[in-house]
Design a protein that fits this description.
The complex is a heterodimer of chains A (227) and B (293). Chain A is mainly alpha-helical. In chain A, 81% of the residues lie in helices and 0% in strands. Chain A has a single domain, classed as Methane Monooxygenase Hydroxylase, Chain G, domain 1, CATH 1.20.58.220. Chain A is built from 6 helices and no strands. The two termini of chain A are 31 Å apart. The model of chain A has no long low-confidence stretch (mean pLDDT 93). Chain B has 293 residues and is an alpha/beta fold. Chain B has 12 helices and 11 strands. In chain B, helix 5 packs parallel to helix 8 and helix 6 crosses helix 8. Classes of the chains: A mainly alpha (227), B alpha/beta (293). At the A-B interface, helix 3 of A face helix 10 and helix 12 of B.
């Protein structure tokens, strides 16, 4: 982000780089939280689910730490142009990541509510959705590091695939509920889980949109998904 | 060197093939983009292909742009980039220096102020100037300072008219309330910020249409600076203001349009918000983010 130019503001450039590094670390924490939450859900491992809930505090704290540093840099460095966009971008992305962490926590809570009962059906599409959503997040953060607008646009386009899977899961679960009302509660849990993952993918597109803003200065809504 | 860039939406609005009047009016080859930043009907002062020299030194190189009517235009750039020289060209002050000369045109109301038939004194009455260091006349009272330009311009007026003009000018310069009971005290008794506002009042007393300000706050503390900045914004409701400043934050705060100069050339010109968030030229970006200069 802070392309190390032959700079008279080397200290500020270092601060911007450190800020980006922290954001990437937060991104990695969120990715791990999603993987673990899904692991707990899929394998009915309630201890992992509890761990995800506890660790969400760390993500929240990281977000506030990043926000504080952004405010400090704005106050002390009076950033302009790309420096200003870089800090605003980090601020926004940190909020998106924090919300993704909340969705991971949501998945863990669903797992706890499901308790000891087995899942309604073997989980196939939901893990596929999660895989795609986390991949979108990984590529969105990659586009930030590389300042690659094409890659960021590509991330936004991938959201359609997650939406399609969600539609598929939704109809399948409705069918279960229609056929046997006794499955309604367990089907609803899975529907919630699919919805949380679908929202994670939406947030990943928001991250990508911010990268486009950082590079071009243009704010645009590229998340034209169905949900 | 890359072509100068113009920031903003103006380019897309000229798609009907119509040539901008500014560019065609005098049959002069104008850099595409730079002058189109300001729509013809909003252009108050037009600088066209202006070069300025100090003897052999070429300080301002082929600058073309237009200042918007009743808006604040800031000119920024590193020391020695020619911004103050350009400003002084705008009211024919540059030529007052030894071996200094100007080429090109500066158009006010369709008339080139460098035309042989134009009286520089009248130009300076219509285009006032405020300098870096407050420079009230040391032997004059506050009131006489305000009216100095007015009297020097040999304008005839009665005593009552003069008193009224003095008050109006001081009010417009946001100084009246502070000095109304001490109009006969020397202008140099005032604080730095007050002296600068006195100089602004002196410029305003002759009813200029355009006010040029050459780093007007560089000798002032933050509070006095804030007062001048407020004043600049207020004045721009009535007149066109051009301000040269080293202070990027000040340019961002007070101006509607910003021009960036480097090595005598204008690199980029556009709406201030665009210039400070998404400049198009990497040299502008490097300068305003403090990477050089």
């Amino acid at each position: 982000m802070a392309a190390m130019r032959n700079s008279t503001r080397a200290g500020f450039d270092r601060d911007l780089q450190a800020l980006q590094d922290d954001l990437l670390m937060m991104g990695s924490m969120v990715q791990k939280a999603i993987f673990k939450a899904l692991d707990g859900l899929k394998n009915r491992d309630l201890s992992i689910s509890r761990q995800v809930i506890a660790e969400d505090d760390l993500i929240d704290r990281k977000r506030f730490m990043i926000e504080d540093r952004c405010i400090d840099l704005i106050a002390t460095q009076q950033p302009l142009a790309k420096d200003l966009r870089a800090i605003i971008t980090v601020l926004h992305i940190s909020v998106e990541l924090e919300r993704m962490g909340d969705y991971a926590e949501g998945l863990a809570k669903i797992s706890l509510r499901m308790g000891e009962q087995p899942p309604l059906k073997p989980l196939i599409d939901i893990p596929r959705m999660a895989e795609k959503a986390t991949e979108m997040l990984r590529r969105a953060l990659d586009s930030l590091v590389r300042q690659d607008v094409a890659l960021a646009r590509d991330v936004c386009a991938s959201d359609d695939e997650v939406d399609e899977l969600y539609t598929q899961v939704y109809h399948e679960l409705l069918l279960y509920m229609a056929q046997d009302p006794k499955t309604i509660e367990r089907a609803t849990f899975l529907l919630w889980a699919a919805h949380d993952i679908e929202r994670i993918a939406d947030r990943a597109t928001n991250v990508a949109e911010r990268v486009i803003y950082l590079v071009t200065g243009k704010l645009s809504e590229l998340n034209a998904g169905r949900y | 060197m890359a072509q100068p860039q113009a920031t903003g939406q103006q380019q897309t609005e000229r798609t009907n093939g119509a040539q901008p009047v500014n560019g065609m009016q005098f049959g002069i080859d104008v850099k595409p983009g730079m002058i189109d930043v300001v729509p013809d009907e909003e252009a108050r002062l037009i600088v066209r292909n202006v070069h300025a020299y100090y003897g052999e030194a070429h300080a301002v190189k082929d600058i073309t742009f237009a200042m918007r009517s009743r808006k604040v235009t800031a000119i920024i750039g590193p020391s020695g980039c020619g911004k103050s020289t350009l400003l002084r060209c705008m009211n024919r002050m540059h030529e007052e220096q030894r071996a200094a000369r100007v080429e090109g045109q500066i158009i006010l109301d369709g008339e080139n102020i460098y035309d042989r038939s134009v009286d520089p004194v009248l130009v300076r009455r219509r285009i006032g100037m405020v300098f870096q260091k407050p420079n009230p006349f040391p032997t004059m009272s506050i009131a006489d300072n305000v009216l100095a330009g007015y009297k020097l311009n040999r304008v005839r007026a009665g005593k009552g008219d003069l008193a009224e003009r003095c008050e109006v000018a001081l009010r417009r310069a946001a100084l009246w309330d502070e000095v109304k009971d001490q109009l006969n005290r020397p202008g140099t008794d005032l604080s730095g910020g007050q002296q600068q506002r006195l100089c602004i009042a002196r410029s305003l007393a002759v009813d200029p249409e355009i006010l040029l300000m050459d780093e007007p706050c560089s000798a002032l503390d933050p509070l006095a600076t804030a007062r001048i900045e407020d004043l600049v914004k207020e004045l721009s409701q009535e007149i066109t203001v051009v301000i040269v400043t080293h202070n990027m934050q000040q340019a961002a705060r007070v101006s509607d349009m910003t021009a960036f100069m480097l090595l005598g050339r204008m690199i980029e010109y556009g709406p201030t918000t665009d210039m400070f968030t998404t400049p198009r030229d990497e040299r502008t970006e490097a300068y305003i983010t403090g990477r050089f200069g």
